[in-house]
Amino acid sequence: xxxxxxxxxxxxxxxxxxxxxxxxxxxxxxxxxxxxxxxxxxxxxxxxxxxxxxxxxxxxxxxxxxxxxxxxxxxxxxxxxxxxxxxxxxxxxxxxxxxxxxxxxxxxxxxxxxxxx
Length: 117
What we know:
This protein has helices spanning about 1-25, 25-30, 40-60, 70-90, 95-115. By secondary structure, the protein is an all-alpha fold.
């Protein structure tokens, strides 16, 4: 079970990297007004959702206690991120504030995962 949990943690980190990496590669384009939500951001958010749900289930099946409030907050943030990226994915440019919000929420989600004990 531990190997499976670690596998999903690795996949979850890959999802975070895709979402945050997609945002960071567009940082210079934000100032120019040409930033857009790319496929990496959408697929990263979807990967995070699927692997996060799987991790909760695997940890509960393994007998570990799960902080449901923390998971709920992280899930709510991820759903907001995923909703924005999904709805705006086909637009040529993204609004600066909305694009920055996705980056900020992604970073917030990372810090919640690491710092909330």
